[in-house]
């Protein structure tokens, strides 16, 4: 048995990066800052998020820099070979399966909404 589940709540670091493919598939990339509590001060941990399909479209339409969101997904690693050095590199990415818009209506985010693919 194996478990790979990540749940995060934080603020979006920049506007969504949306890509539309000829196949009709939609991909969205976001960064998410999640505060790490410590005795002296709160420092954010930054996570790269990847959303696909309807969830990506919702993020593209409703999420903006500074938005408070919650996500549930799984951890994966993107791997590539560096063009200049040929060294193999990797980067952790959260593959988001469920997106929650957590801001208030005052924030312009329309309140809490469950944007998991099952709701479309």
TrEMBL record:
Pfam families hit by this protein: SSB (PF00436)
Alphabetical keyword list: DNA-binding
Alphabetical list of CDD domains matching this protein: SSB_OBF
InterPro entries per UniProt: NA-bd_OB-fold, Primosome_PriB/ssb, ssDNA-bd
GO molecular function: DNA binding
NCBIfam families cross-referenced by the UniProt entry: PRK07459.1 (NF005674), ssb (TIGR00621)
Subunit-level organization: Homotetramer.
Protein name as it appears in the record: Single-stranded DNA-binding protein
């Amino acid at each position: 048995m194996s478990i790979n589940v990540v749940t995060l709540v934080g603020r979006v670091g920049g506007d969504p990066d949306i890509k539309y493919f000829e196949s009709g598939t939609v991909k969205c990339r976001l960064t998410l800052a999640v505060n790490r509590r410590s005795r002296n001060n709160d420092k954010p941990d930054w996570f790269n998020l990847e959303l696909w399909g309807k969830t990506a479209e919702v993020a593209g339409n409703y999420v903006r820099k500074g938005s408070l969101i919650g996500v549930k997904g799984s951890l994966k690693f993107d791997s590539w070979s560096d063009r200049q050095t040929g060294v193999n590199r990797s980067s952790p990415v959260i593959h988001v399966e469920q997106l929650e818009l957590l801001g208030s209506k005052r924030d312009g985010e329309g309140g809490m909404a469950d944007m998991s693919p099952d709701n479309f």
